[in-house]
Amino acid sequence: MSVLKEKRDSSLANALSILKGFTVDHPEQGVTDVAKHLGLSKSTVHRLLASMASEGFVYKNPRSNRYSLGTSVLTLTNLVSSQLPILTESVPVLNMLTERTGETSHLGILEDQHMIYLQKVECDNPTSLFTHIGKRHPIHATSIGQAILAFQELEERHQLLPEKLESFTSNTITSHESLYEKLNSIKAEKYAVCDQEFQEHVMAIAAPIFNEKGQVLAAINMVGPANRMKSKLNSHRLVEEVVRSGEKMTELVRLRKRKENNRFKS
C-alpha cells in the first residue's frame, strides 16, 4: 500500500469518526473537543472539518466557531430510511403499542456490540431514560439486546458480548453464565423483561422480530417507570401486547418479502 493511499484511508477513517462523535448529547463540538476525543492534533482536525464543511457534512457556526452536522447528513439519513422498509412498517405497530399500554415503545437492532434504536413512539408521560433514534445502549443490559441475543447462535453470542459485562445498576447481570441462563428462558418464553438492569427505576419488555427464514432480525419493546409498569402488568396485559406487536412486525416483514419474491418471479 502506498503512503498516499494510507494517508487517504486514515483521513477517511478520522472523518467518519468525527461524524460519529456528533450525538443528541453532543450536537455541537469545537476543534479542541474533537481533537481531544480522537487523540488527533488540532491542525489535523481543523483541516478535516474544513473539508467536511465544504461538502455540507458539518456546519460551522460563525459566532461560536463550533461545528454541528450539516444538511448532507440529512440527505443520507432520508436515503437510509427509504432503504429500510422496516422503519415505515414499524410506525403503526409502535403507535398501537404505545396507545394500548400508555408507555414509550421502540424498534431496535444490534450493531457491533451495541443495541441501537431505529424508531420510537413516545408516550405522554415518558420515563427518565433518555432514548432517541440512533441512541446506542449495551446489549446485555437492555430488553431489546437480550430479546435478540436469545435467538442468536452460541458463536454469535460470543462475538457480540464483551469479555467483561459492565455493571450499571445492582440488577445488571455481569456473569456470562447467568446471562446465558436468562437468554435461554427468554428464548423459551419469547419475550424479555429488564427490571432496572440498565437504569434504576426503569423497566422494559421486549419481543423479537423474525425474517422469512426464521432468523431474528430486530426487536420491539416498551419502556416505562418500574413502579408504573409493575402496577399495569396484569391489568394492561403488557407482556401480551409486546409479544403481539413483535408477531405483527414479523408478519409484516414476511409479507413484504413474499411480495418482493412474487414481483421478482413475474
Structure overview:
The chain has ten helices and eight strands. The strands form two sheets. It has a six-stranded antiparallel sheet with strand order 5-4-3-8-7-6, sandwiched between helices. Strands 1-2 form a two-stranded antiparallel sheet. α2 packs across α3 and α5 packs antiparallel against α10. The termini are far apart. The protein is of the alpha+beta class and 266 residues long. It has two domains: 72 residues, Arc Repressor Mutant, subunit A; 182 residues, Beta-Lactamase. A hairpin with a 2-residue loop joins β3 and β4.
SSE layout and pairings?
Layout: H1 3-21, H2 31-38, H3 42-54, E1 58-60, E2 67-69, H4 71-83, H5 85-101, E3 104-111, E4 114-121, E5 136-138, H6 143-149, H7 154-160, H8 176-189, E6 192-195, E7 202-210, E8 216-225, H9 226-232, H10 238-265
Antiparallel strand pairs: 1-2, 3-4, 3-8, 4-5, 6-7, 7-8
Helix pairs in contact: 2-3, 5-10
